[in-house]
């Protein structure tokens, strides 16, 4: 029971991080290059994959987008 709760907290933290990041990037004039946002992708990756694989996929997605260099 404790392990599942910890995993859910990890998932919520990661999703919340990307939800907080999106308005900051939007304010800077940076738009997503993908058909759906990173927040949506994070939620989907965490639902469909084991945690370490989901983190890898999320990291690869963010690195492939790299919105900071779009400035």
Describe this structure in words.
This protein has 71 residues and is an all-alpha fold. Helices cover 73% and strands 0% of the residues. The protein has helices at residues 2-27, 38-48, 51-65. The chain is globular and about 40 Å long. It starts with a helix and ends in a 6-residue tail after the last helix. The model has no long low-confidence stretch (mean pLDDT 76).
What's the multimeric state?
single chain
Quick check: average pLDDT?
Answer: 76
Strand content: under 5%
Which class best fits the helix and strand makeup? mainly alpha
Number of strands: 0
Count every helix, treating DSSP H or I runs of 4 or more residues as helices: 3
Straight-line N-to-C gap: 45 Å
What sequence of helices (H) and strands (E) makes up the elements? HHH
Mind describing the biggest β-sheet?
Answer: none
Basic shape: globular
> Helix coverage percent of residues?
over 70%
Q: Which residues sit in consecutive blocks of at least 5 with pLDDT less than 50?
A: none
Question: Gyration radius, to the nearest Å?
Answer: 13 Å
Features:
71 residues; mainly alpha
Topology:
Elements: H1 2-27, H2 38-48, H3 51-65
Helix pairs in contact: 1-2, 2-3
Describe, in short, the structure shown.
The protein is mostly helical. 73% of the residues lie in helices and 0% in strands.
């Amino acid at each position: 029971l404790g392990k599942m709760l910890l995993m859910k907290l990890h998932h919520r933290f990661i999703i919340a991080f990307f939800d907080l990041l999106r308005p900051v990037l939007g304010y800077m004039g940076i738009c997503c290059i993908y058909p759906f946002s990173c927040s949506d992708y994070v939620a989907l990756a965490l639902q469909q994959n084991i945690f370490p694989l989901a983190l890898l996929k999320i990291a690869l997605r963010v690195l492939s987008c790299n919105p900071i260099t779009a400035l």
